[in-house]
Amino acid sequence: METNPTRMCELLVGLPEVNVLGVDDQRGQPIVVKVESTLDEQRWCGACGTRGSIKDRDEVVLVDLPCFGRPTRLVWRKQRWRCREPLCPATSWTVVDRRIAPPRAALTDRAARWATKQVGRLGRAVSDAAEELGCDWHTVNDAVVAYGEALLEADCDRVGAVDALGLDETLFFRKGERHRKQWATSIVDVGGAGHPPKLIDVIKGRTAVKVSDWIDEQPDVWRQAIQWGVLDMSGPYRKVFSDSLRHVTQVADPFHVHKHANSKVDECRRRVQNETLGHRGRKADPLYRSRRLLTKAHDRLDEAGDAKLMGLLEAGDPNGDVRMTWHAKETVRSLYGIDDPADAEAFIDELIDDMSDPEMPPEVRSLGGTLRRWRDHIVAWHRSKVSNGPTEGMNNLIKRIKRVGFGLRRFRNYRVRVLLYAGKPNWDLLAHVTPTTPTGAVSMS
Ligand SMILES: [Zn+2]
Q1: What angle do CA 337, 342, 343 make, to 5 degrees?
Q2: Neighbour tally for 66: CB within 10 Å
Q3: Burial of 61 (0-12, 13-18, 19+ CB in 10 A)
Q4: CB of 412 within 8 A of CB of 146?
Q5: Can you tell me whether residue 36 is helix, strand or coil?
Q6: Model confidence band, residue 1 (pLDDT cutoffs 50, 70, 90)
Q7: Among 61, 118, 417, 441, which is 20 to 30 Å from 255 by CA?
Protein backbone atom coordinates (compact mmCIF):
# COMPACT_ATOMS: atom_id res chain seq x y z
CA MET A 1 0.00 0.00 0.00
CA GLU A 2 1.26 3.45 -0.96
CA THR A 3 1.21 5.83 1.95
CA ASN A 4 3.75 8.51 1.02
CA PRO A 5 1.61 11.66 0.61
CA THR A 6 3.83 13.21 -2.11
CA ARG A 7 3.63 10.14 -4.27
CA MET A 8 -0.10 9.89 -3.63
CA CYS A 9 -0.56 13.45 -4.87
CA GLU A 10 1.36 12.73 -8.06
CA LEU A 11 -0.89 9.79 -8.81
CA LEU A 12 -3.99 11.86 -8.54
CA VAL A 13 -3.00 15.08 -10.31
CA GLY A 14 -5.52 15.76 -13.06
CA LEU A 15 -8.18 13.42 -11.75
CA PRO A 16 -11.48 14.95 -10.63
CA GLU A 17 -12.46 14.72 -6.99
CA VAL A 18 -12.36 11.11 -6.03
CA ASN A 19 -11.95 9.20 -2.80
CA VAL A 20 -8.82 7.14 -2.88
CA LEU A 21 -9.56 3.72 -1.49
CA GLY A 22 -6.04 2.38 -1.80
CA VAL A 23 -2.92 1.97 -3.90
CA ASP A 24 -1.31 -1.33 -4.70
CA ASP A 25 2.33 -1.15 -5.74
CA GLN A 26 3.93 -4.48 -6.46
CA ARG A 27 7.24 -5.03 -8.21
CA GLY A 28 6.85 -6.05 -11.83
CA GLN A 29 3.15 -5.19 -11.88
CA PRO A 30 1.34 -2.05 -12.95
CA ILE A 31 0.63 0.34 -10.08
CA VAL A 32 -3.02 -0.06 -9.15
CA VAL A 33 -4.93 2.93 -7.80
CA LYS A 34 -8.38 2.25 -6.45
CA VAL A 35 -10.81 5.20 -6.42
CA GLU A 36 -14.46 5.94 -5.89
CA SER A 37 -16.20 8.96 -7.41
CA THR A 38 -17.70 11.51 -5.09
CA LEU A 39 -20.43 12.69 -7.43
CA ASP A 40 -23.39 12.89 -5.16
CA GLU A 41 -25.86 14.58 -7.51
CA GLN A 42 -26.19 11.32 -9.41
CA ARG A 43 -27.91 9.78 -6.40
CA TRP A 44 -31.16 11.34 -7.53
CA CYS A 45 -33.39 9.29 -9.80
CA GLY A 46 -33.54 10.70 -13.34
CA ALA A 47 -37.12 9.54 -13.78
CA CYS A 48 -38.89 10.65 -10.61
CA GLY A 49 -36.38 12.67 -8.63
CA THR A 50 -36.40 10.44 -5.59
CA ARG A 51 -33.14 9.97 -3.74
CA GLY A 52 -31.67 6.58 -4.61
CA SER A 53 -30.12 4.06 -2.34
CA ILE A 54 -26.98 2.07 -3.05
CA LYS A 55 -27.76 -1.19 -4.77
CA ASP A 56 -24.23 -2.46 -5.22
CA ARG A 57 -20.82 -1.42 -6.50
CA ASP A 58 -19.22 -2.08 -9.84
CA GLU A 59 -15.49 -2.09 -10.46
CA VAL A 60 -14.00 -0.98 -13.77
CA VAL A 61 -10.32 -1.37 -14.54
CA LEU A 62 -8.91 1.44 -16.68
CA VAL A 63 -5.50 1.96 -18.21
CA ASP A 64 -4.21 5.21 -16.78
CA LEU A 65 -1.24 7.49 -17.48
CA PRO A 66 2.10 6.00 -16.60
CA CYS A 67 3.18 6.98 -13.11
CA PHE A 68 6.76 7.05 -11.76
CA GLY A 69 7.65 5.73 -15.24
CA ARG A 70 5.52 2.64 -14.76
CA PRO A 71 2.23 1.48 -16.28
CA THR A 72 -0.69 2.30 -14.03
CA ARG A 73 -4.23 0.97 -13.64
CA LEU A 74 -7.08 2.92 -12.20
CA VAL A 75 -9.68 0.73 -10.55
CA TRP A 76 -12.83 2.77 -10.45
CA ARG A 77 -15.42 1.68 -8.01
CA LYS A 78 -18.74 2.95 -9.30
CA GLN A 79 -21.86 3.11 -7.21
CA ARG A 80 -24.97 1.56 -8.66
CA TRP A 81 -28.11 3.27 -7.40
CA ARG A 82 -31.62 1.98 -7.04
CA CYS A 83 -34.75 4.13 -6.99
CA ARG A 84 -36.62 3.86 -3.74
CA GLU A 85 -39.98 4.85 -5.18
CA PRO A 86 -41.89 1.57 -5.69
CA LEU A 87 -44.00 2.92 -8.54
CA CYS A 88 -41.05 4.41 -10.48
CA PRO A 89 -40.24 2.72 -13.82
CA ALA A 90 -36.49 3.34 -13.33
CA THR A 91 -34.70 0.33 -11.91
CA SER A 92 -31.06 1.17 -11.36
CA TRP A 93 -28.31 3.37 -12.73
CA THR A 94 -24.57 3.63 -12.47
CA VAL A 95 -22.51 6.70 -11.81
CA VAL A 96 -21.16 8.34 -14.98
CA ASP A 97 -18.15 10.60 -14.77
CA ARG A 98 -16.63 11.40 -18.14
CA ARG A 99 -13.82 13.25 -16.42
CA ILE A 100 -12.57 9.86 -15.31
CA ALA A 101 -13.57 7.91 -18.41
CA PRO A 102 -16.45 7.75 -20.89
CA PRO A 103 -18.78 4.76 -20.50
CA ARG A 104 -17.31 1.49 -21.81
CA ALA A 105 -13.84 3.00 -22.21
CA ALA A 106 -10.69 1.00 -21.62
CA LEU A 107 -8.50 4.03 -21.00
CA THR A 108 -9.02 6.83 -18.53
CA ASP A 109 -9.95 10.10 -20.17
CA ARG A 110 -6.55 11.62 -19.42
CA ALA A 111 -4.68 8.58 -20.74
CA ALA A 112 -6.76 8.62 -23.92
CA ARG A 113 -6.00 12.31 -24.57
CA TRP A 114 -2.34 11.71 -23.88
CA ALA A 115 -2.25 8.79 -26.33
CA THR A 116 -4.06 10.84 -28.98
CA LYS A 117 -1.43 13.55 -28.75
CA GLN A 118 1.50 11.12 -28.74
CA VAL A 119 0.29 9.24 -31.79
CA GLY A 120 -1.63 11.93 -33.66
CA ARG A 121 0.51 14.97 -33.15
CA LEU A 122 3.98 13.59 -32.56
CA GLY A 123 3.56 10.69 -34.97
CA ARG A 124 4.63 8.01 -32.49
CA ALA A 125 3.75 4.41 -33.26
CA VAL A 126 0.64 3.06 -31.53
CA SER A 127 2.66 0.09 -30.32
CA ASP A 128 5.13 2.49 -28.73
CA ALA A 129 2.46 4.31 -26.74
CA ALA A 130 0.83 0.99 -25.87
CA GLU A 131 4.07 -0.25 -24.43
CA GLU A 132 4.43 2.81 -22.27
CA LEU A 133 0.88 2.37 -20.98
CA GLY A 134 1.33 -1.36 -20.59
CA CYS A 135 -1.70 -2.28 -22.65
CA ASP A 136 -2.42 -3.72 -26.09
CA TRP A 137 -2.33 -2.05 -29.49
CA HIS A 138 -6.10 -2.02 -30.04
CA THR A 139 -6.81 -0.30 -26.75
CA VAL A 140 -4.61 2.63 -27.73
CA ASN A 141 -5.68 2.67 -31.35
CA ASP A 142 -9.39 2.73 -30.47
CA ALA A 143 -8.81 5.68 -28.16
CA VAL A 144 -6.76 7.62 -30.74
CA VAL A 145 -9.41 7.09 -33.40
CA ALA A 146 -12.29 8.07 -31.08
CA TYR A 147 -10.67 11.19 -29.60
CA GLY A 148 -8.99 12.07 -32.90
CA GLU A 149 -12.26 11.95 -34.81
CA ALA A 150 -13.92 14.08 -32.15
CA LEU A 151 -11.12 16.65 -32.45
CA LEU A 152 -11.32 16.79 -36.24
CA GLU A 153 -15.09 17.09 -36.01
CA ALA A 154 -14.89 19.93 -33.48
CA ASP A 155 -12.23 21.86 -35.36
CA CYS A 156 -14.54 23.78 -37.70
CA ASP A 157 -11.87 26.32 -38.68
CA ARG A 158 -9.30 23.74 -39.71
CA VAL A 159 -10.04 24.09 -43.41
CA GLY A 160 -9.99 27.73 -44.37
CA ALA A 161 -10.31 29.43 -47.75
CA VAL A 162 -8.25 27.60 -50.35
CA ASP A 163 -6.64 29.34 -53.29
CA ALA A 164 -5.01 26.31 -54.89
CA LEU A 165 -6.41 22.82 -54.43
CA GLY A 166 -4.22 19.79 -55.11
CA LEU A 167 -5.34 16.24 -55.79
CA ASP A 168 -2.91 13.41 -55.44
CA GLU A 169 -3.14 9.67 -55.24
CA THR A 170 -1.57 7.59 -52.49
CA LEU A 171 -1.22 3.87 -52.19
CA PHE A 172 -2.54 3.12 -48.75
CA PHE A 173 -2.36 -0.60 -48.31
CA ARG A 174 -2.16 -3.90 -50.01
CA LYS A 175 -4.88 -6.23 -48.97
CA GLY A 176 -4.72 -9.96 -48.47
CA GLU A 177 -2.42 -12.46 -50.06
CA ARG A 178 -2.92 -11.21 -53.57
CA HIS A 179 -1.41 -7.86 -52.55
CA ARG A 180 -4.15 -5.89 -54.13
CA LYS A 181 -3.37 -2.21 -54.36
CA GLN A 182 -5.70 0.15 -52.57
CA TRP A 183 -5.70 3.78 -53.52
CA ALA A 184 -6.64 6.88 -51.65
CA THR A 185 -6.86 10.45 -52.85
CA SER A 186 -5.31 13.23 -50.81
CA ILE A 187 -7.10 16.55 -51.03
CA VAL A 188 -4.63 19.26 -50.19
CA ASP A 189 -4.51 22.98 -49.72
CA VAL A 190 -1.20 23.36 -51.53
CA GLY A 191 -0.54 26.61 -49.73
CA GLY A 192 0.67 29.86 -51.21
CA ALA A 193 1.10 33.43 -50.10
CA GLY A 194 2.24 33.08 -46.53
CA HIS A 195 0.45 29.93 -45.53
CA PRO A 196 1.89 26.43 -45.49
CA PRO A 197 0.29 23.44 -47.18
CA LYS A 198 -2.27 21.43 -45.29
CA LEU A 199 -3.95 18.10 -45.81
CA ILE A 200 -7.69 18.74 -46.00
CA ASP A 201 -9.00 15.22 -46.29
CA VAL A 202 -8.30 11.79 -47.67
CA ILE A 203 -10.91 9.71 -49.39
CA LYS A 204 -10.99 6.11 -50.40
CA GLY A 205 -10.25 5.41 -54.05
CA ARG A 206 -9.05 7.59 -56.89
CA THR A 207 -12.03 7.63 -59.19
CA ALA A 208 -13.48 10.89 -60.46
CA VAL A 209 -16.91 10.13 -58.99
CA LYS A 210 -15.69 9.70 -55.41
CA VAL A 211 -13.63 12.88 -55.46
CA SER A 212 -16.36 14.87 -57.19
CA ASP A 213 -18.87 13.74 -54.55
CA TRP A 214 -16.58 15.06 -51.85
CA ILE A 215 -16.16 18.43 -53.58
CA ASP A 216 -19.89 18.75 -54.27
CA GLU A 217 -20.58 18.37 -50.54
CA GLN A 218 -18.48 21.41 -49.65
CA PRO A 219 -19.96 24.88 -49.14
CA ASP A 220 -20.47 26.89 -52.30
CA VAL A 221 -18.47 29.85 -50.99
CA TRP A 222 -15.50 27.63 -50.33
CA ARG A 223 -15.62 26.09 -53.80
CA GLN A 224 -15.96 29.44 -55.53
CA ALA A 225 -12.86 30.80 -53.80
CA ILE A 226 -10.62 28.17 -55.36
CA GLN A 227 -8.61 29.60 -58.25
CA TRP A 228 -6.19 26.86 -59.23
CA GLY A 229 -6.48 23.09 -59.37
CA VAL A 230 -3.22 21.21 -59.30
CA LEU A 231 -3.14 17.66 -60.61
CA ASP A 232 -0.90 14.93 -61.88
CA MET A 233 -1.47 14.13 -65.55
CA SER A 234 -4.26 11.67 -64.93
CA GLY A 235 -7.66 11.53 -66.54
CA PRO A 236 -9.78 11.05 -63.40
CA TYR A 237 -8.56 14.17 -61.58
CA ARG A 238 -8.85 16.22 -64.75
CA LYS A 239 -12.46 15.09 -64.91
CA VAL A 240 -13.02 16.05 -61.27
CA PHE A 241 -12.01 19.63 -61.91
CA SER A 242 -13.90 19.80 -65.20
CA ASP A 243 -17.08 18.39 -63.62
CA SER A 244 -17.13 19.89 -60.15
CA LEU A 245 -14.92 22.98 -60.27
CA ARG A 246 -15.46 24.36 -63.73
CA HIS A 247 -14.29 27.89 -62.90
CA VAL A 248 -10.90 26.65 -61.67
CA THR A 249 -7.79 26.87 -63.87
CA GLN A 250 -6.15 23.45 -64.02
CA VAL A 251 -2.42 23.24 -63.56
CA ALA A 252 -0.30 20.20 -64.41
CA ASP A 253 2.04 19.58 -61.56
CA PRO A 254 5.65 20.14 -62.77
CA PHE A 255 6.86 17.18 -60.75
CA HIS A 256 4.58 14.86 -62.70
CA VAL A 257 5.57 16.42 -66.03
CA HIS A 258 9.22 15.65 -65.21
CA LYS A 259 8.30 12.19 -64.04
CA HIS A 260 6.49 11.45 -67.26
CA ALA A 261 9.39 12.71 -69.41
CA ASN A 262 11.78 10.55 -67.40
CA SER A 263 9.61 7.49 -67.90
CA LYS A 264 9.92 8.01 -71.66
CA VAL A 265 13.73 8.08 -71.37
CA ASP A 266 13.58 4.78 -69.47
CA GLU A 267 11.26 3.29 -72.03
CA CYS A 268 13.57 4.26 -74.89
CA ARG A 269 16.66 3.00 -73.07
CA ARG A 270 15.05 -0.40 -72.56
CA ARG A 271 13.90 -0.64 -76.17
CA VAL A 272 17.31 0.25 -77.61
CA GLN A 273 18.97 -2.11 -75.13
CA ASN A 274 16.79 -4.92 -76.36
CA GLU A 275 17.21 -4.10 -80.04
CA THR A 276 20.99 -3.85 -79.85
CA LEU A 277 21.87 -6.61 -77.38
CA GLY A 278 18.77 -8.81 -77.47
CA HIS A 279 18.37 -8.98 -73.73
CA ARG A 280 17.22 -6.95 -70.75
CA GLY A 281 19.74 -4.68 -69.09
CA ARG A 282 22.65 -6.34 -67.29
CA LYS A 283 25.17 -4.84 -64.96
CA ALA A 284 27.91 -4.41 -67.57
CA ASP A 285 25.72 -3.03 -70.37
CA PRO A 286 26.49 0.63 -71.13
CA LEU A 287 22.83 1.64 -71.38
CA TYR A 288 21.94 -0.11 -68.16
CA ARG A 289 24.84 1.65 -66.47
CA SER A 290 23.60 5.00 -67.75
CA ARG A 291 20.08 4.65 -66.33
CA ARG A 292 20.50 6.90 -63.30
CA LEU A 293 22.57 9.50 -65.12
CA LEU A 294 19.87 9.68 -67.78
CA THR A 295 17.03 10.57 -65.46
CA LYS A 296 19.01 13.00 -63.35
CA ALA A 297 18.68 16.65 -64.30
CA HIS A 298 21.54 17.52 -66.63
CA ASP A 299 22.51 20.62 -64.69
CA ARG A 300 22.93 18.48 -61.60
CA LEU A 301 25.57 16.32 -63.28
CA ASP A 302 29.14 17.36 -62.62
CA GLU A 303 31.74 17.29 -65.40
CA ALA A 304 32.73 13.69 -64.68
CA GLY A 305 29.11 12.54 -64.63
CA ASP A 306 28.45 14.29 -67.90
CA ALA A 307 31.51 12.74 -69.55
CA LYS A 308 30.52 9.32 -68.27
CA LEU A 309 26.99 9.67 -69.61
CA MET A 310 28.21 10.72 -73.04
CA GLY A 311 30.67 7.82 -73.13
CA LEU A 312 28.03 5.28 -72.20
CA LEU A 313 25.64 6.61 -74.83
CA GLU A 314 28.45 6.53 -77.40
CA ALA A 315 28.89 2.84 -76.63
CA GLY A 316 25.31 1.69 -76.26
CA ASP A 317 23.13 3.96 -78.38
CA PRO A 318 24.20 3.53 -82.04
CA ASN A 319 21.27 5.42 -83.60
CA GLY A 320 21.14 8.17 -81.02
CA ASP A 321 17.55 7.41 -79.99
CA VAL A 322 18.30 7.44 -76.27
CA ARG A 323 20.27 10.64 -76.59
CA MET A 324 17.41 12.25 -78.50
CA THR A 325 14.84 11.23 -75.88
CA TRP A 326 17.16 12.38 -73.12
CA HIS A 327 17.53 15.72 -74.92
CA ALA A 328 13.74 15.99 -75.22
CA LYS A 329 13.40 15.40 -71.48
CA GLU A 330 15.96 18.11 -70.75
CA THR A 331 14.16 20.52 -73.08
CA VAL A 332 10.90 19.89 -71.20
CA ARG A 333 12.77 20.70 -67.99
CA SER A 334 14.06 23.95 -69.43
CA LEU A 335 10.46 25.04 -70.02
CA TYR A 336 10.26 25.68 -66.30
CA GLY A 337 13.18 28.09 -66.47
CA ILE A 338 11.16 30.46 -68.64
CA ASP A 339 9.63 33.28 -66.67
CA ASP A 340 7.23 34.94 -69.06
CA PRO A 341 3.96 33.00 -69.64
CA ALA A 342 3.70 34.10 -73.29
CA ASP A 343 7.28 32.96 -73.96
CA ALA A 344 6.51 29.64 -72.31
CA GLU A 345 3.49 29.15 -74.58
CA ALA A 346 5.50 29.86 -77.70
CA PHE A 347 8.24 27.53 -76.46
CA ILE A 348 5.94 24.58 -75.76
CA ASP A 349 4.13 24.93 -79.10
CA GLU A 350 7.42 24.76 -80.94
CA LEU A 351 8.51 21.83 -78.78
CA ILE A 352 5.33 19.87 -79.49
CA ASP A 353 5.86 20.53 -83.19
CA ASP A 354 9.46 19.31 -83.12
CA MET A 355 8.60 16.22 -81.14
CA SER A 356 5.92 15.07 -83.55
CA ASP A 357 8.40 14.89 -86.44
CA PRO A 358 8.15 11.37 -87.96
CA GLU A 359 11.95 11.11 -87.81
CA MET A 360 11.83 11.23 -84.01
CA PRO A 361 12.09 8.06 -81.88
CA PRO A 362 8.63 6.73 -80.89
CA GLU A 363 9.17 7.70 -77.24
CA VAL A 364 9.75 11.34 -78.18
CA ARG A 365 6.65 11.40 -80.36
CA SER A 366 4.66 9.87 -77.51
CA LEU A 367 5.98 12.51 -75.12
CA GLY A 368 5.03 15.18 -77.65
CA GLY A 369 1.50 13.75 -77.75
CA THR A 370 1.19 13.99 -73.99
CA LEU A 371 2.44 17.57 -74.02
CA ARG A 372 -0.15 18.39 -76.70
CA ARG A 373 -3.00 16.90 -74.61
CA TRP A 374 -1.88 18.72 -71.48
CA ARG A 375 -0.53 21.86 -73.13
CA ASP A 376 -2.86 24.34 -71.43
CA HIS A 377 -2.41 22.67 -68.06
CA ILE A 378 1.35 22.76 -68.37
CA VAL A 379 1.67 26.42 -69.31
CA ALA A 380 -0.91 27.40 -66.66
CA TRP A 381 1.91 26.83 -64.20
CA HIS A 382 3.71 29.90 -65.53
CA ARG A 383 0.80 32.05 -64.41
CA SER A 384 -0.03 30.28 -61.17
CA LYS A 385 3.39 29.10 -59.97
CA VAL A 386 1.56 26.55 -57.82
CA SER A 387 2.66 22.97 -57.72
CA ASN A 388 1.92 19.75 -55.98
CA GLY A 389 5.37 19.94 -54.44
CA PRO A 390 3.56 20.53 -51.17
CA THR A 391 1.27 17.61 -51.93
CA GLU A 392 4.28 15.43 -52.53
CA GLY A 393 5.65 16.62 -49.21
CA MET A 394 2.31 15.74 -47.70
CA ASN A 395 2.55 12.28 -49.17
CA ASN A 396 5.94 11.90 -47.57
CA LEU A 397 4.31 12.66 -44.23
CA ILE A 398 1.65 10.11 -45.01
CA LYS A 399 4.33 7.56 -45.87
CA ARG A 400 5.94 8.23 -42.52
CA ILE A 401 2.64 7.52 -40.80
CA LYS A 402 2.30 4.34 -42.78
CA ARG A 403 5.77 3.25 -41.76
CA VAL A 404 5.07 3.65 -38.06
CA GLY A 405 1.44 2.64 -38.47
CA PHE A 406 1.81 -1.08 -38.85
CA GLY A 407 -1.70 -2.37 -39.11
CA LEU A 408 -3.35 0.60 -40.77
CA ARG A 409 -5.67 -1.82 -42.48
CA ARG A 410 -8.87 0.02 -41.99
CA PHE A 411 -9.40 3.16 -43.94
CA ARG A 412 -11.01 4.90 -40.97
CA ASN A 413 -7.81 4.43 -38.92
CA TYR A 414 -5.72 5.61 -41.81
CA ARG A 415 -7.78 8.73 -42.40
CA VAL A 416 -7.78 9.84 -38.78
CA ARG A 417 -4.08 9.19 -38.35
CA VAL A 418 -2.95 11.12 -41.42
CA LEU A 419 -5.32 14.01 -40.75
CA LEU A 420 -4.14 14.34 -37.16
CA TYR A 421 -0.56 14.38 -38.35
CA ALA A 422 -0.68 16.32 -41.61
CA GLY A 423 -4.03 18.09 -41.33
CA LYS A 424 -2.83 20.54 -38.68
CA PRO A 425 -5.82 20.47 -36.33
CA ASN A 426 -5.99 22.94 -33.45
CA TRP A 427 -4.63 20.77 -30.63
CA ASP A 428 -5.87 23.22 -27.98
CA LEU A 429 -9.34 21.84 -28.67
CA LEU A 430 -8.38 18.32 -27.65
CA ALA A 431 -8.90 19.10 -23.96
CA HIS A 432 -12.56 19.93 -24.59
CA VAL A 433 -13.80 17.35 -27.08
CA THR A 434 -16.00 14.41 -26.17
CA PRO A 435 -15.69 11.23 -28.19
CA THR A 436 -19.03 9.90 -29.39
CA THR A 437 -17.96 6.35 -30.12
CA PRO A 438 -17.03 3.88 -27.41
CA THR A 439 -13.27 3.82 -27.01
CA GLY A 440 -12.90 0.11 -26.55
CA ALA A 441 -13.78 -2.81 -24.39
CA VAL A 442 -12.74 -3.10 -20.79
CA SER A 443 -9.83 -5.43 -20.32
CA MET A 444 -7.42 -6.21 -17.57
CA SER A 445 -3.94 -6.91 -18.84
ZN1 LIG B 1 -37.35 6.98 -9.60
Answers
A1: 45
A2: 16
A3: middle
A4: no
A5: strand
A6: low
A7: 417
* Rounded Cα gap, residues 169 and 232, in angstroms: 9
Residues with CB under 5 A from ligand 1 (ion): 45, 47-48, 50, 83, 85, 88, 90
Q: How far is the CA of 44 from the centre of ligand 1 (A)?
A: 8
Long-range contacts of 194-200 (CB under 8 A, 24+ apart): 196/390, 197/166, 197/390, 197/391, 197/393, 197/394, 198/158, 198/159, 198/422, 198/423, 198/424, 199/394, 199/397, 199/398, 199/418, 199/419, 199/422, 199/423, 199/424, 200/159, 200/162, 200/423
What pLDDT, on a 0 to 100 scale, did the predictor assign at position 445? 29
Cβ-count burial of 389 within 10 angstroms (0-12 exposed, 13-18 middle, 19+ buried)?
Answer: middle
Phi, psi (5° rounding) for residue 298? Answer: -60, -40
Query: Which DSSP string do the residues of 331-342 spell out, in sequence order?
Result: HHHHHTT---HH
How far apart CA 79 and CA 92 sit, in angstroms, is 10
The C-alpha torsion from 147 through 148 and 149 to 150, rounded to 10°, is 50
Among 72-81, 87-96, 384-393, the least confident range: 384-393
- Cβ-based neighbours of 128, under 8 Å, separated by 6 or more: 118, 404
Please list, in sequence order, all residues whose beta carbon lies within 8 angstroms of the beta carbon of residue 69, skipping any fewer than 6 positions away.
none
Distance (Å) from CA 99 to ligand 1 centroid: 25
Nearest to 198 by CA among 396, 384, 425: 425
Chain-centroid distance, C-alpha 368: 35
pLDDT tens-digit readout, 303-325: 999 999 999 998 889 899 999 99
* Cα 112 to Cα 99: distance, rounded to the nearest angstrom: 11
From ligand 1's centre to the CA of 55, what distance in Å?
13
